[in-house]
Amino acid sequence: RLRISSRSLRAEGFYVVPVHPWMSEVMNVTTEDDRLARAGARHLRGVYRKGQGTRTFLLSCESLSGDPRSGYLNAPAVAANLANATGAFDVTILLFLRRQDFFLESFYLQTIHEGRSWSFREFQDSLEKGAFNWTYLLSAFETQFSHEKIIVLPYLGDTERSWSAVAAFGQAIGAQILAGSVIDTPHNRSYSFVGLELARRCNRNLTPD
Q: Distance (Å, rounded) from C-alpha 148 to C-alpha 160?
C-alpha cells in the first residue's frame, strides 16, 4: 500500500524507500555483516539524494524484523546490521506485534500449507527456547536505537474485523492518506479440524508430482 500511495505520501512530506535485496538478506544474519551494512548505507544515501527536501523517509519490509523460522532469535544481529546501515540518519522503529497464540497458530498453518505434516505439538517441540519472545525482539532494537525511538503497535487483525494495519500505521506517523484507509488487512480463512487433518495426511502421503 505504501508504494501504491507513494505520490500522495510525497505530497504530505513522506518518501517511500524502494525495497532492495539487502533488506531480504538482513533477515537471515546471525552476526554483524559489514558488506550488508555498506550495501544498505549506499542504497539509503541514494534514496536520500533522490528525495531531498522530504522530511520523512518510510522503509517498510517484514524481513527487517528477523527470521520467523528461528522465532526471531537473530533479532540482535538484524538490529545491529540495520543500525550500521542507517547510522547517518535519525531513525524511528515502528513494530506491529501480534499476540503470540495467534501468531504461532498462523505460522504452524503456514508450514502445513507449505507441505509439512507434523502435529502442533511437534511444531511446538521444534521451537528453540526463547523463540517468538516479543520482549526479546523489542530489547534487540532498543539496544541499537534506544527506547525513545521505538513505537509499538498491537496487530488487531485477528480480533477486530474492521481494523486496518495501514490506517494504524498512518495514524502513528501522521500520514493522512494512510490514516483514512479502510479495511485492508487480509483475513485468511483457517483450516477446520477436518481440513487440517486432511491436509496433514495428504502432505504425508502425496508427492508434488
A: 28
How many Å apart are CA 99 and CA 27, to the nearest integer?
21
DSSP string, 40-89: HHHHHHHHHHHTTT-SEEE---GGGG--GGGTTTTHHHHHHHHHHHTTTS
Residue 161 · residue 172 · CB < 8 Å: no
Q: Is residue 92 within 8 Å of residue 85, measured between CB atoms?
A: no
What's the per-residue H, E or C state across 132-178? CCHHHHHHHHHHHHCHHHEEEEECCCCCCCCCCHHHHHHHHHCCHHH
186 against 172, higher pLDDT: 172
Amino acid of residue 5:
S
The band of 192, judged by pLDDT with boundaries at 50, 70 and 90, is confident
For cell 525511538, what's the residue?
149
Inform me whether the pLDDT recorded for 209 exceeds 90: no
Look up the pTM and report it.
0.89
**Residue 170: Cβ-neighbour burial (10 angstroms; 0-12, 13-18, 19+):** buried
Is residue 51 within 8 A of residue 9, CB to CB? The reply is no
Angle CA 159–165–170, to nearest 5? 140
Q: Could you give the count of Cα atoms lying within 13 Å of 86 in the half-sphere of its Cβ?
A: 22
pLDDT band at 104 (very low <50, low <70, confident <90, very high): very high
